[in-house]
């Protein structure tokens, strides 16, 4: 696909993007401004905000592992609540991210003024253009730059916190009394002020949502997304809480409330063992790194919103254009232009409130989306991570967001309402006629007697195929143990089904007639998938312990008139595949079926398989990927050393398995005592690195020999 993004990002990339996006304004600018609302208890507000964001984080992690797609909150809301809510959520989150990014980049200009006499906004615009270039060359390079920022930043902040805590708790009693006075009164505006501050600093944790917007580019999303988000939240929450606590302890209260660079001022008090002003310089450099990381990650994630919405026809299609580097060029250019516009015309405090308010509204929708997806009973909704304490976690998250929005005041609410109205108008006048889909909520309605949108299941099935198998899914084992039947003479489907049913009945407690009846009486759309030249039968049984598969290949076209009495097949059928699994594991059946479909949809598949004369060749074709290699034991080659030895005597990497051996045109599964013979063909599966090593060790020789 032309508009499919590369999966380049690993666990540390996830951690770096999320953490880097959170350490900027939240630590280096906001503490002083936030202290206006609650006083010394501002550090507590940061800790509470980190706890209160947990429901939204768990919900984002669940949906992201089920739907790892660019666009984050927009894509979730569109596929759960429908394109109207997707438009509103996407547009609002896009603006919220850009506003926060613009704020962070302005911080670069503000801190750069400590070193150079350059206008703040001029520096900010130059920085924005620099991040644009980084994003245009690819997410992996962007993330590599991000990791350098985060490592440098965390190093300085850890030293700052360790030194600060030591200074606070190891000073003489007179100094301790002075520090204690810094925290009196603890709540300057009561609990109301505290809750207002919690809502105000909520924007400090928005980096967690940026992970969802680049989910499509994350490798192994089912592990890396939730783990990366949890690690990022724990590290960020601790540094926020402890760091702001130190600022409150060492900066005079009235000065702190008006301090736009509280971290640098605190560093001046903490790092007294360094040369004069060295602490300020060090913290200022850390601030620049933090603002740069947030600006970089913010542009990266924000640009994925118009890209995803353009791909779904809610925005002009040109926004979904992918460049040669695998990045959404037009979306990045548009996002850059808007951020520069915000830098030129907007201020700071209002931006934070507006971004926090709309993000809290999005969290309400996302928590509700998890409930909708679960209630819709869509089988292909298959998250690799499930939110704990469902649905109570989601309900609590919704209530928390509503309360915090109320405390933030009317102006942010009016802005949010304006964006909602803008989204409704845009959808009505531009997108409505271009979009035909509906969300998972229609499937929930279907359970209550209303209609549903079937295409959503097809899309989720496509996503399931792209995600691939989950660790522990026995697809390779099922292929290896599958029964292959190659037919030369003409045959019809009833004869094939009879033989397949006999074979399956030996694995099941059901009678052969029951199996036959289940396959023949199921509607095609329920248990039969048709591809050019291929029929795939899939079903679930109570009495089966492990997945099982049979493949029938016929050189002549199979007569399928008994199965498709009223429908004509577009192409002659030559291959029938039967896959069964336990009804206790429907999600695994779907993942294995998705992997099977991915293989059977290969171009020229039927021609390729019809040319094969052995069971091994067919099984290898079904196994074919980077975890597989086939080695023939030939004399005069490096593998000659294996000939005449037992399999258990062969020194192979620990994480590989000799799955099949073909000998004299017959295929069997070996054991440790199997003696290898000349001309045996070994099918080996295992981990990618080990398979690559075996390929280099045994196959490169053969290739070079053929070339000469």
UniProtKB/TrEMBL annotation:
Record-linked SUPFAM superfamilies: Phoshotransferase/anion transport protein, TrkA C-terminal domain-like
Residue ranges annotated for the PTS EIIA type-2 domain, each copy included: 477-625
Stretches that traverse the bilayer: 12-37, 43-67, 88-112, 118-137, 149-171, 191-215, 227-251, 281-305, 326-345, 351-373, 385-407, 413-430
Membrane topology annotation: Multi-pass membrane protein
Main location: membrane
Keywords for the protein's UniProt record, in alphabetical order: Membrane, Transmembrane, Transmembrane helix
A Pfam family that the UniProt record links to this protein: PTS_EIIA_2
Compartments in which it is found: Membrane
Record-linked PROSITE patterns: PTS_EIIA_TYPE_2, RCK_C
The keyword RNA-binding is annotated on this UniProt entry: no
Name the record gives this protein: Amino acid permease
Species: Mariniflexile aquimaris
């Amino acid at each position: 696909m032309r508009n499919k993004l590369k999966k380049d990002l690993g666990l540390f990339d996830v951690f770096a993007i999320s953490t880097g996006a959170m350490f900027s304004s939240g630590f280096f600018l906001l503490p002083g401004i936030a202290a206006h609302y609650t006083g010394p208890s501002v550090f507590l507000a940061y800790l509470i905000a980190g706890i209160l964001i947990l429901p939204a984080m768990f919900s984002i992690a669940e949906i992201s592992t089920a739907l790892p797609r660019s666009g984050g909150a927009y894509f979730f809301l569109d596929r759960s609540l429908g394109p109207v809510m997707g438009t509103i959520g996407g547009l609002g989150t896009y603006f919220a991210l850009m506003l926060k990014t613009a704020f962070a980049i302005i911080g670069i200009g503000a801190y750069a003024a400590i070193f150079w006499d350059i206008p703040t906004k001029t520096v900010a615009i130059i920085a924005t253009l620099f991040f644009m270039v980084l994003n245009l060359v690819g997410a992996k390079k962007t993330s590599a730059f991000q990791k350098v920022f985060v490592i440098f930043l965390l190093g300085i902040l850890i030293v700052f916190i360790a030194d600060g805590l030591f200074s606070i708790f190891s000073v003489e009693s007179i100094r301790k009394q002075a520090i204690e006075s810094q925290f009196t009164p603890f709540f300057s505006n009561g609990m109301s002020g505290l809750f207002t501050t919690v809502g105000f600093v909520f924007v400090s944790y928005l980096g967690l949502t940026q992970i969802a917007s680049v989910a499509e580019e994350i490798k192994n999303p089912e592990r890396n997304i939730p783990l990366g988000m949890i690690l990022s939240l724990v590290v960020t929450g601790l540094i926020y809480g402890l760091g702001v606590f130190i600022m409150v302890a060492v900066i005079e209260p009235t000065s702190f409330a008006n301090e736009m660079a509280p971290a640098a001022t605190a560093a001046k008090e903490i790092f007294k063992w360094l040369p004069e002003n060295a602490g300020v310089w060090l913290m200022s450099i850390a601030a620049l790194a933090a603002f740069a990381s947030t600006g970089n990650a913010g542009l990266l994630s924000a640009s994925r919103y118009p890209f995803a919405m353009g791909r779904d026809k809610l925005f002009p299609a040109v926004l979904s254009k992918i460049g040669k580097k695998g990045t959404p060029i037009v979306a990045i250019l548009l996002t850059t232009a808007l951020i520069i516009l915000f830098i030129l015309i907007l201020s700071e405090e209002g931006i934070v409130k507006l971004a926090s308010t709309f993000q809290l509204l999005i969290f309400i929708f996302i928590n509700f989306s998890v409930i909708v997806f679960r209630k819709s009973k869509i089988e292909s909704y298959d998250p690799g991570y499930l939110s704990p304490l469902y649905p109570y976690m989601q309900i609590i998250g919704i209530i928390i967001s509503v309360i915090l929005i109320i405390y933030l005041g009317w102006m942010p609410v009016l802005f949010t309402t304006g964006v909602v109205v803008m989204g409704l108008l845009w959808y009505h006048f531009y997108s409505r006629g271009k979009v035909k889909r509906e969300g998972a909520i229609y499937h929930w309605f279907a359970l209550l007697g209303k209609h549903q949108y079937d295409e959503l299941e097809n899309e989720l099935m496509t996503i399931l195929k792209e995600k691939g198998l989950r660790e522990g899914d026995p697809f390779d084992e099922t292929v290896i143990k599958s029964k292959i039947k190659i037919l030369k003479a003409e045959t019809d489907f009833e004869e094939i089904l009879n033989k397949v049913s006999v074979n399956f009945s030996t694995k099941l407690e059901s009678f052969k007639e029951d199996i036959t009846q289940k396959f023949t009486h199921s509607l095609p759309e329920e248990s039969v998938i048709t591809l050019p030249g291929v029929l795939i039968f899939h079903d679930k049984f109570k009495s089966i312990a492990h997945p099982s598969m049979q493949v029938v290949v016929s050189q002549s076209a199979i007569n399928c008139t008994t199965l498709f009495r009223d429908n004509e097949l577009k192409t002659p059928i030559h291959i029938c595949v039967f896959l069964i699994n336990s009804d206790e594991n429907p999600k695994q059946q779907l993942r294995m079926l998705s992997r099977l479909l991915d293989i059977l949809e290969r171009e020229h598949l039927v021609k390729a398989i019809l040319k094969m004369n052995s069971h091994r060749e067919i099984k290898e074709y079904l196994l074919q990927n980077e975890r597989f290699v086939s080695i023939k034991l030939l004399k005069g080659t490096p593998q000659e050393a294996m000939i005449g030895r037992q399999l258990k005597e062969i020194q192979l990497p620990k994480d590989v398995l000799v799955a099949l051996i073909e000998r004299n045109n017959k295929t069997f599964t070996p054991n440790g005592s199997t003696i290898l013979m000349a001309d045996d063909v070994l099918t080996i599966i295992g981990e990618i690195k080990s398979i690559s090593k075996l390929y280099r060790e045994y196959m490169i020789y053969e290739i070079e020999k053929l070339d000469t």
